[in-house]
Amino acid sequence: MSSWTVDDVRRALAEPAARGLDLPGHGRAAVLVPLLDAPEGLALLFTVRSAGLSRHAGQIAFPGGRVEAGEDAIAAALREAHEEVGLSVDRGDVFGLLDDRASPFGLIATPVVARVAWPADLRVDPGEVAEVFTVPLALLAETPVMRETRAHEGGTRVLHRYLVVGRDVWGLTGNIVKDLLDRLAQVGGKVAPC
Questions:
Q1: How far apart are CA 31 and CA 112, in angstroms?
Q2: Which of 24, 98, 112, 145 has the largest CB neighbor count within 10 A?
Q3: Rounded CA gap, 187 and 4, in Å?
């Protein structure tokens, strides 16, 4: 298994700079990519969205939502993570941003990667989150990624999917995981699967 360190993550997110995206008519959103600094190694925290939600019910996601007036992407991601799962993350624990991602619902999401001391006490909002689970980063890196191209208004979208720990991590979340793993693969000569 690949074993990246916190310093590897810092280097991986330093360059190249994350690509911003600006599409007319799209709103702004942000998601927190909680990188758990656990004794057994780095891991990611995922949520399963509540069944009663109008969009993406039951899907696997990172905590996140719309950027509110007066917020930047980092502030929005930290606020949403606190509201959805009770994570308290300081701005100083943010490693950096990943490439903006357009959703098919008229939003551009900015992924914010932050270090989270683990284990941590969580307070899950059942109106938004059905459950929380974690996956070691090394296990994700060893999991073959599947690629799917879908027609979308004005073109096509490439979606990445990871079938790991009995879960289906795909779509926007899968694309964010792929971006993070691709960046980490450039650090220390480690290779992420294609």
A1: 6
A2: 112
A3: 9
What would the pLDDT profile of 120-137 be if each residue is shown by its tens digit? 999 999 999 999 999 999
* Helix 171-185 with 6-14: angle, nearest 10 deg: 100
Considering its fold, how many domains does the chain have in total?
Answer: 1
Does 168 map to a domain? no
State which residues form the domain around 35. Answer: 6-141
- Yes or no: say if 171 and 107 are a contact pair by the CB < 8 Å rule: no
Q: Where are the beta strands (DSSP E) in 103-145?
A: 107-117, 129-136
* Residue 184 covered by a domain: no
Return d(Cα 86, Cα 74) in angstroms, integer.
16
Low-confidence spans in the chain with pLDDT less than 70:
1-2, 53-57, 153-154, 188-194
Looking at the whole model, is its pTM more than 0.85? yes
Residue 116 domain flag: yes
**Tens-place pLDDT, residues 139-159:** 999 999 999 998 876 678 899
Query: Domain holding 60: CATH number?
Result: 3.90.79.10
